[in-house]
Amino acid sequence: MPHVLVLNASYEPLGVVSLRRALVLVLDKKAVSLEDTGVFMHSATSAISAPSVVRLTRFVRIPFRGPVPLTRRALFARDGGRCVYCGGVATSVDHVVPRSRGGQHAWENVVAACRRCNHVKADRHLADLGWRMKRQPAPPTGLAWRIIGTGHRDPRWRPYLEPYGTPEELAHLAPMHHADGPPMAPVELSA
């Protein structure tokens, strides 16, 4: 089922919810739809356009948010799904300083890697192999990473995330027109 970007009343990105949850928010008048997918959801008595972006009608105060959680999905999003050693398609997670040699499981020490590079590197340091990384790993910052790190992507979200992220972070959310969106299967709602 598709996912929907939820914005605070101030247009600050809050998170991503399922389409069903977003429809409940809109039907309960707790949110308004800002972007539609062009697909209609049908119940026994009505049809409603499926939202892609909703904005809450009341401002929700968010407590302090700590660092972005280190998840596999967020890591692959940070590294663009590419191996930091060779640039190939990343399929695994690698610790730059191996954990067996005291390396931590932290943003500064974890990178996306292809299976071959991860296997060749094993539990050795980069200096032992003469390898270099294209860029040093760092923790992602900004509100956009709360959304990008979920792994759910919709190009219609880009205008709402641009003020909160860098162009490099938002590169995978290429601009597109509504008519060019990916086809979605119709979803029936229970009455």
Automatic annotation (TrEMBL):
Keyword Nuclease: yes
Entry annotated with the keyword Nuclease: yes
One function term, GO molecular function aspect: endonuclease activity
Protein name per its UniProtKB record: 5-methylcytosine-specific restriction endonuclease McrA
Pfam families: HNH_5
Key words, A-Z: Endonuclease, Hydrolase, Nuclease
Listed InterPro entries: HNH_5, HNH_nuc, NA-targeting_endonuclease
Domain HNH nuclease: 70-119
